[in-house]
Recover the amino acids of this structure.
């Protein structure tokens, strides 16, 4: 289907919008610097932890890669498989999982027949991803979809484990947008900002976690 | 398979629907709980910011600039999205929009569609159109799913089933999903998750709306707490986003402030669980994602509104804060407003999109208390637009004869000090003659009888302030004059006046 | 609509009272109390007797031409006034916010409209912001507990949140308690109250529930229209509570048995 099939409607809408004096000519011009919604004073990791834990997320701060790997293994418990990104920021994790009889599954969902893949991976309880950034003032993880960094791993399982190298903390959404977010939006086709577990308050305003996405979010910082 | 009924606009029955809602005790409990939580969430969420007032001004300016540059920004957005491989389509109205979605479905051999929450598609009644074309569509936001299987319309922009109790949801799930009864929201939600997972896995196409469309980068931003929008736009091979043309904003910085004010105003959250930034179909190296992404830019009356004095209504970011704070909404709920958009913003948008004569009571469904404007994250002057719409109704003769006669009489009396005083004295005589033993009026005639239906009214004072003033200040009683309106064109020039004796 | 109209200081100027039609005809004692408050500060108060109404009722009903007729009468009545003070946030909001809209394209009236708009004040705003007075030097004879209902237009269109509270705090022997939902509308809304009595009544019901929950001797408010609505509901419910106008409190005319400040109780 070609875009130009709606060319006539497009012209009609744009002409209508341009045929009158544009409203709000007196709107305040773009500021040189925007006031951020939040500011962070003090330690970024501390703030990130406070914010995410308010949302029931768990932040595990570990001194090195070995202890980080152990932490992930503890979260997996008796599980025999886990969804993982092909490209994780924690070298040696996949080998450690395999050594403990846990199969890392790197889902690939492209093309037309998708339900078989989905039916196969749907029961897997835990998904392990990296994180491109963490935003301290909101307790948010930024995950940019690209080669080796798929969407399903942080979306389908009940439990999401994100591996976060310490140097990826930003104070707030605004600083991430300026320093990395804009580039991610221009260069890739999908980014998700994750702020706590999946939740709903639709029935009588009672908060229930894990309605569609993960009910638990763990962030392993190393 | 679900069959979504056609929802007709019943806004002209506002008073009847509102009256029923007010006496519905179950609904009142649900409304009280929902709106209180919404209001408290917003107050707490906005309080924890650098400077709420300055941020609202910044957010408002971003929206107004975007509306000022709307056609240019739409073209920029289209160019950017097209560069990323998105098919951008334009729809003038609901029928065109729905037909485009049906065509896309057919061309991609789609049978089942998973749909995320979108007010624009409520407007176009997309579900009904898709079902009529033989397609299966399932709402995946929990609240919207419940609304869909109940055959209803959402009663709130953000909390679609604010009007429902857990018992009502349980009955519905027993009936439609054949699950055992339960009044536990966690059990009900878990059942919905299981049911909808199967739907997601077998869906060929996902439909979502968008909260913002960022022109600078060619990005659709979709916020949600459940994650269903992510599933809709990630699992199926085809993703269609239906986006009102007013959703476009200019820059990433504008997005930064607007998205945070949206969530803080809607639920008090700093950000929702998921803020999904969609640029296009899966890139060659991406492990997953849709093969085709279509963006339908929907006009459906917006371009017309853009050229009127109601353009400010297009700045709305659909947070629902004006619904929660509105004492009318708190008492009557969303369905009384009769169409897709309830509450104060609905009282403006419904007449504008659906025709003012199809929603004549809505501009009057407000005490003009201004709480909506004060709560709005982009400071939309809702009371002012309600007043303008009332002016339009009068100008177009859509008003009751009784009120018109009353107001005309009022204007004549108030335009002349003599007639004013005369009518005041007459009212004092009459009201004091008919007042009850407690000094109050219990039953007034004609339209005023609506007042005494549930309130008393005080009688007029036997001696008005001005009479007392004249006595106190020993100023001579001036001759009562009748000034005919229209003779004076200037405030500083007094003209000849007829004199009337009381 | 907001246009920037300068607001010169009212200090040292002649004060004209705009008593408002409701106060004039139904609550004259409130008008006398307002005069007392102003005179207590040594001001000379004048009452231009050609005044009638601000035009809000017609304007809010959508009858703009008729509202303009009435607004012209307002401007004629106060053509010689330097400063106009009214015991109503709602009527003052009509003048300050909507006269600019009504007369924006009317060259004959525009200059005078801007002069009037720039010099019109609500009573508590005039005292606190205009004159810098918060202590009226009033001492009540007996201790009294009051709760304040914020009238909507004063609160949101004139930003009168702190001014009435500051004035009440300085009244001797008076204690202020918080009214739950103090800033929530009582449901009056002019013609709304008769066009949609069920909805207006439900809003009034919420207000009365909050009044019932507060341990105050009287409820104080700044607008006679709210007073009419709320007292109408309290009276119909056979409640002993009443709402009084803040002018009466500031004139020291309020006591435990203050009922609706209508004439027959005086």
């Amino acid at each position: 289907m070609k875009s130009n099939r709606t060319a006539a409607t497009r012209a009609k809408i744009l002409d209508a919008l341009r045929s009158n004096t544009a409203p709000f000519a007196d709107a305040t011009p773009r500021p040189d610097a925007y006031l951020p919604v939040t500011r962070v004073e003090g330690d970024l990791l501390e703030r990130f932890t406070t914010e995410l834990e308010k949302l029931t997320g768990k932040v595990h701060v570990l001194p090195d890669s070995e202890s980080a790997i152990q932490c992930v293994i503890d979260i997996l418990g008796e599980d025999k498989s886990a969804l993982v990104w092909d490209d994780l920021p924690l070298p040696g994790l996949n080998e450690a999982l395999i050594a403990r009889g846990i199969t890392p599954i790197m889902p690939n969902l492209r093309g037309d027949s998708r339900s078989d893949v989905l039916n196969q991976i749907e029961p897997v309880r835990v998904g392990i991803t990296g994180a491109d950034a963490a935003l301290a003032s909101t307790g948010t993880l930024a995950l940019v979809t690209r080669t080796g960094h798929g969407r399903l791993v942080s979306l389908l399982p009940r439990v999401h484990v994100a591996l976060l190298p310490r140097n990826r903390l930003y104070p707030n959404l605004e600083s991430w947008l300026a320093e990395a977010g804009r580039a991610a939006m221009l260069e890739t086709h999908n980014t998700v900002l994750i702020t706590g577990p999946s939740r709903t308050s639709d029935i009588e305003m009672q908060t229930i976690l894990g309605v569609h996405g993960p009910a638990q979010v763990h962030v392993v910082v190393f | 398979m679900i069959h979504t009924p056609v929802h007709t606009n019943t806004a002209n029955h506002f008073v009847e629907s509102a009256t029923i809602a007010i006496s519905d005790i179950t609904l009142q409990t649900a409304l009280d709980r929902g709106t209180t939580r919404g209001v408290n969430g917003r107050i707490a969420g906005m309080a924890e910011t650098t400077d709420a007032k300055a941020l609202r001004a910044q957010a408002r300016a971003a929206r107004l600039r975007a509306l000022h540059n709307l056609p240019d920004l739409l073209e920029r957005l289209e160019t950017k999205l097209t560069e990323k491989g998105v098919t951008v389509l334009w729809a003038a109205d609901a029928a065109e929009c729905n037909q485009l979605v049906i065509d896309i479905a057919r061309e991609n051999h789609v049978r089942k569609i998973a749909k995320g929450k979108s007010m624009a598609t409520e407007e176009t009644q997309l579900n009904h159109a898709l079902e009529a074309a033989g397609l299966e569509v399932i709402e995946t936001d929990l609240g919207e799913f419940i609304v869909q299987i109940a055959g209803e319309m959402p009663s709130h922009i953000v909390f679609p089933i604010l009007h429902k109790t857990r018992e009502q949801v349980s009955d519905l799930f027993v009936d439609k999903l054949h699950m055992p009864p339960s009044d536990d929201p966690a059990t009900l939600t878990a059942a919905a998750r299981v049911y909808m997972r199967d739907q997601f896995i077998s869906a060929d196409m996902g439909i979502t709306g968008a909260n913002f469309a960022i022109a600078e980068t060619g990005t659709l931003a979709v916020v949600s707490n459940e994650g269903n929008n992510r599933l809709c736009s990630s699992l199926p091979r085809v993703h269609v986003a239906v986006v009102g043309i007013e959703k476009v904003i200019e820059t990433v910085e504008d997005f930064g402030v607007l998205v945070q004010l949206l969530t803080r105003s809607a639920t008090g959250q700093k950000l929702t669980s998921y803020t999904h930034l969609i640029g296009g179909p899966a890139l060659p190296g991406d492990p997953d994602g849709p093969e085709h992404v279509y963006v339908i830019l929907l006009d459906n009356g917006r371009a017309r509104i853009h050229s009127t004095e109601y353009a400010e209504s297009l700045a709305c970011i659909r947070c629902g804060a004006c619904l929660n704070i509105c004492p009318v909404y708190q008492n009557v709920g969303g369905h009384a407003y009769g169409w897709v958009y309830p509450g104060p913003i609905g009282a403006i948008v419904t007449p504008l999109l659906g025709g003012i004569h199809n929603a004549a009571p809505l501009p009057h469904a407000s005490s003009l208390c201004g709480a909506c404007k004060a709560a709005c994250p982009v400071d939309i002057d809702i009371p002012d637009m309600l007043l303008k719409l009332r002016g339009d109704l009068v100008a177009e003769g859509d008003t009751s004869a009784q009120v018109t006669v009353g107001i005309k009489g009022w204007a004549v009396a108030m335009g002349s000090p003599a007639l004013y005083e005369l009518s005041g004295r007459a009212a004092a005589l009459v009201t004091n003659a008919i007042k009850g033993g407690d000094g109050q009026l219990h039953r007034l005639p004609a339209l005023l009888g609506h007042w005494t239906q549930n309130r008393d009214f005080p009688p007029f004072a036997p001696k008005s302030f001005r009479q007392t003033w004249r006595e106190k200040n020993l100023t001579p009683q001036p001759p009562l004059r009748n000034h005919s309106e229209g003779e004076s064109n200037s405030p500083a020039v007094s003209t000849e006046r007829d004199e009337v004796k009381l | 609509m907001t246009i920037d109209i300068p607001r010169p200081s009212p200090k040292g100027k002649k004060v004209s009272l705009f008593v408002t039609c409701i106060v004039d005809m139904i609550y004259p004692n409130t008008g006398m109390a307002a005069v007392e408050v102003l005179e207590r500060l040594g001001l000379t108060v004048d009452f231009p007797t050609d005044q009638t109404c601000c035009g809000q009722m017609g304007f809010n009903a959508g009858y703009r031409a008729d509202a303009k007729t009435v607004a012209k009468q307002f401007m004629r009545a106060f053509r010689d006034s330097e400063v106009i003070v009214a015991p109503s946030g709602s009527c003052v909001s009509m003048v300050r916010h909507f006269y600019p809209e009504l007369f924006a394209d009317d060259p004959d009236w525009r200059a005078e409209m801007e002069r009037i708009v720039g010099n019109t004040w609500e009573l508590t705003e005039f005292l606190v912001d205009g004159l810098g007075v918060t202590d009226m030097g009033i001492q009540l004879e007996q201790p009294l507990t009051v709760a304040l209902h914020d009238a909507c237009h004063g609160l949101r269109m004139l930003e009168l949140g702190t001014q009435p509270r500051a004035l009440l705090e300085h009244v001797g022997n008076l204690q202020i308690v918080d009214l739950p939902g103090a800033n929530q509308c009582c449901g009056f809304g002019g013609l709304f109250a008769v066009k949609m009595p069920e909805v207006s009544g439900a809003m009034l019901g919420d207000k009365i529930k909050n009044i019932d929950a507060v341990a105050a001797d009287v409820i104080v408010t700044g607008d006679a229209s709210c007073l009419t609505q709320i007292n109408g509901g309290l009276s119909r419910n056979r409640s002993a509570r009443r709402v009084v106008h803040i002018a009466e409190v500031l004139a020291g005319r309020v006591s435990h048995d203050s009922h609706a400040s209508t004439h027959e109780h005086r």
Observations:
- Chain A has a mean pLDDT of 96.
- The longest helix of chain A spans residues 173-187.
